[in-house]
Design a protein that fits this description.
With 425 residues, the protein is an alpha+beta fold. It contains six helices and 20 strands. The radius of gyration is 50 Å and the shape is elongated.
Length: 425
C-alpha cells in the first residue's frame, strides 16, 4: 500500500469514528459500504498516478515504406501551345475585268483544282479573239506576197536583171512581214487566254468559303478583296512556339550527350481537352527568334481526314524532344520542397537512419518527379510514413505497400488480459 493510500485510509477512519459518535442511529451499513468504495477508488487513482510513464516514446523507431530507385530512360516531353493553319490557302481573284454572270459552286463545299467557280461576261474578250485572228490572217497574206516577190527576185539577181538593192528591199519586206505574223499570233494567244480567264477556276483543292462577290458585281484585276478563299484542310499545319532559352538548353544537352535524340512524333490536345487521334511530325524549326515574344516557331504537319482541325484553332502539342538515359522516377509524395523551392527526399541510410538528400527535380511525368541529380542507383527513398521521419533518426523500413500481417491473439494473452481486467475492476 502506498503512502498516499495510507493517509486517505486514516482520514476516513477518523471521520467515520466521529460520525458514529454523533449519529450512530442514522448510519446504515449501505452508506458505510458506499463511503468505503469511494475512498478505495481515490486510492487506486493515486496509485495509478504514482506509476512512472513507460520508457521509449520519442526515441522509438519510425516505421516507413520505401522504394528502390534505379536510373531509367525518361522521355523529355514538351507541351507547347500552337495554332492550326491550312496546309494550302488560296485567295481566288479575277484575272480579267468584267461583270459576274454566274456563280458555279456551293459555299462551304469541297472543290477540286481547276473546277469552274465564276463566269465573267466574255463578249468583249471573244470579240478580241476574233479581231486577233483577222489580224493574223492579214499578216500571213502579206507575208505570202512579199516572200513570193523576194523569191522571184533571187534568180533575176544572178542574171543581173534586177539590182542588188531591189532584191534586198524585197527580202527585208518579207522578213518584216514574218515579224508581223508572229506579233499577230501572240496577240491571238493573249486574246484567247483572256477569254479563258472569264471562267474563274479553283487554283487548289480544298474547302471553299463564302462568296464575297455576287452575280452582277463588277470585278477588276486590281480589286482589294478576293472573290472567295479556298483552304486545303488535309493535311494541316500546326505552328507551335518554344522559347529560345529552352531550345538552347535542349541543343546543349544533345551536344554534350546528356540526352539522346527523341522522335518527331507529335500528339495534339484539342480545345475541349480531348486527344486528337492522329499523330503528326515536326517538319522544321525556324531559324529566326521572334523579337517580341522570344520564341521560335516549330511547324508540325498532321493528317486531318475527318476535317476536325480547322484553321485558327488553338491546340496543345506534346512531343518528345529528347530522352534522358540516366534519370530517376521518384513518386511525387516522396518529394518535399523548402520555402526556396529546393527539392529533397528522405533515404534509408546506414544502420537504418533517415538521411535527407537534396535533389534536382524540375519536371514531372505522370505521378513521378524526374530527378536528374542527387540520387544514386539502389537508393531507398522513403515514400510512406514521412510524418514521423526526422533527420538522422532511426527507422524501421519496409518495402512500400507491404501488407501487414495481423495474427490472432494467443490463449495466454487472452487469459492475462482477462485476469488484469478482473483485478482492475
Amino acid at each position: 500500500m502506498g503512502p498516499r493510500l495510507v493517509a486517505l485510509t486514516a482520514a476516513w477512519r477518523w471521520s467515520h469514528g466521529r460520525g458514529i459518535a454523533a449519529s450512530s442511529a442514522r448510519r446504515t451499513p449501505r452508506s458505510a459500504v458506499a463511503s468505503w468504495a469511494s475512498i478505495a477508488a481515490l486510492g487506486l487513482l493515486g496509485a495509478c498516478a504514482a506509476k512512472p510513464a513507460p520508457a521509449g516514446g520519442a526515441s522509438a523507431s519510425a516505421a516507413v515504406g520505401y522504394v528502390v530507385v534505379e536510373p531509367t530512360r525518361v522521355a523529355l516531353t514538351s507541351e507547347l501551345s500552337g495554332r492550326v493553319g491550312a496546309y494550302e490557302s488560296s485567295e481566288v481573284r479575277p484575272q480579267v475585268s468584267g461583270v459576274i454572270e454566274k456563280r458555279l459552286f456551293t459555299e462551304g463545299a469541297l472543290v477540286t483544282r481547276g473546277q469552274p467557280l465564276y463566269q465573267i461576261d466574255s463578249s468583249l474578250y471573244r470579240a478580241a479573239v476574233n479581231q486577233a485572228q483577222a489580224n493574223l490572217q492579214s499578216a500571213e497574206a502579206n507575208l505570202t506576197a512579199l516572200q513570193a516577190l523576194a523569191d522571184r527576185y533571187q534568180p533575176l539577181l544572178k542574171m543581173q536583171f534586177v539590182s542588188r538593192q531591189d532584191y534586198d528591199n524585197a527580202a527585208a519586206a518579207a522578213g518584216q512581214a514574218r515579224g508581223v505574223v508572229a506579233q499577230s499570233r501572240a496577240a491571238l494567244d493573249t486574246a484567247r487566254i483572256n477569254l479563258k480567264f472569264t471562267t474563274v477556276p479553283a487554283p487548289i483543292s480544298g474547302r471553299i468559303g463564302r462568296s464575297l462577290s455576287t452575280v452582277g458585281a463588277l470585278v477588276t484585276t486590281s480589286q482589294a478583296n478576293p472573290l472567295t478563299t479556298i483552304e486545303g484542310l488535309d493535311p494541316m499545319f500546326v505552328d507551335i512556339q518554344q522559347s529560345s532559352g529552352e531550345l538552347l538548353a535542349l541543343r546543349r544537352s544533345l551536344t554534350s550527350g546528356g540526352l539522346a535524340p527523341g522522335s518527331a512524333a507529335v500528339r495534339l490536345t484539342l480545345e475541349d481537352g480531348s486527344l486528337y487521334d492522329q499523330v503528326g511530325t515536326v517538319e522544321f524549326s525556324e531559324a529566326v527568334v521572334d523579337p517580341t515574344t522570344g520564341t521560335v516557331t516549330l511547324r508540325v504537319r498532321i493528317a486531318n481526314p475527318q476535317g476536325v482541325l480547322l484553321p485558327g484553332m488553338f491546340v496543345r502539342a506534346s512531343f518528345v524532344q529528347g530522352v534522358d538515359t540516366a534519370a530517376f522516377l521518384v513518386p511525387q509524395v516522396a518529394v518535399s520542397r523548402d520555402p526556396k523551392g529546393q527539392a529533397s527526399v528522405y533515404v534509408v541510410g546506414p544502420r537504418d537512419k533517415a538521411i535527407q538528400r537534396r535533389i534536382t527535380a524540375d519536371r514531372t511525368q505522370g505521378a513521378f518527379w524526374v530527378v536528374t541529380q542527387g540520387l544514386d542507383p539502389g537508393d531507398k527513398v522513403v515514400t510512406q510514413g514521412l510524418a514521423n521521419v526526422q533527420p538522422n533518426k532511426p527507422l524501421r523500413p519496409v518495402a512500400a505497400n507491404t501488407p501487414q500481417r495481423i495474427a490472432p491473439p494467443s490463449a495466454a494473452g487472452v487469459g492475462n488480459s482477462r485476469a488484469s481486467g478482473a483485478g482492475g475492476g
